[in-house]
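F.,

This is the one I mentioned.
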């Protein structure tokens, strides 16, 4: 396994390296002190996971995340001193898979790295059952894809799995904590921001094709259901 750690603080890079040495002693940790070199090293090294600070010199961490997400679905964990709710939401909206604030514990970071790597290694959810269709909406279980009309909706693995559980449980509401446990893992049961951001990202991808179409209904304070 190879990890790219993007941070201008040598102490943070050392601490992250210790985490990998404890859990994955065979892992190779690659460093980048700023956004520009991070993008270059990502292309050269093809890492399995990225640990990314927001407050980088030059190209910001948010921009780095945005650029990486356009290139790859590699797991990205933001590790930053910015602990505000808006910062966290912005990081997730930009494409980060997880968001941890400094100071952090080694155990917390290890747990989050394990979680994102586990999700990345899982095959797409699906089966041999016939596709679910409603109007222009089509969820193809065996093909692991979602379409609106003839157009494929390009979902990230997390977005796909979230929508999968809503389709499978239609027309029932799926509770917030149930979705968090099934899609992210039991370490994330209280991370409602993760759920809100990904639901909004799914909605926006459909609305780009059909402005009046919204496949997800919010049951306030309870959960979400498929609305097709």
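My design for it:
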């Amino acid at each position: 396994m190879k990890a790219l750690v993007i941070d201008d603080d040598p102490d943070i890079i050392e601490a992250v390296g210790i985490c990998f040495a404890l859990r994955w002693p065979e892992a190779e940790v690659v460093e980048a002190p700023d956004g520009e070199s991070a993008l270059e090293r990502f292309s050269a090294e093809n890492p399995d996971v990225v640990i990314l600070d927001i407050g980088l010199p030059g190209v910001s961490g948010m921009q780095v995340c945005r650029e990486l997400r356009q290139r790859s679905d590699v797991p990205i964990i933001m590790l930053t001193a910015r602990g505000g709710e808006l910062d966290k939401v912005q990081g997730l909206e930009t494409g980060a898979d997880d968001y941890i604030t400094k100071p952090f514990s080694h155990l917390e970071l290890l747990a989050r790295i394990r979680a994102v790597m586990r999700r990345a290694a899982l095959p797409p959810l699906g089966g041999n059952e016939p596709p679910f269709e409603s109007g222009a909406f089509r969820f193809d279980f065996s093909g692991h894809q979602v379409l609106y009309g003839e157009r494929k909706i390009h979902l990230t693995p997390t977005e796909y799995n979230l929508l999968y559980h809503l389709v499978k449980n239609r027309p029932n509401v799926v509770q917030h904590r149930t979705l968090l446990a099934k899609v992210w893992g039991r370490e994330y049961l209280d991370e409602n921001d993760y759920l809100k951001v990904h639901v909004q990202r799914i909605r926006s991808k459909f609305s780009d094709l059909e402005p009046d179409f919204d496949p997800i209904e919010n049951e306030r304070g309870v959960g979400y259901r498929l609305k097709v």
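The CA atoms of residues 136 and 150 lie 8 Å apart.

Talk soon.
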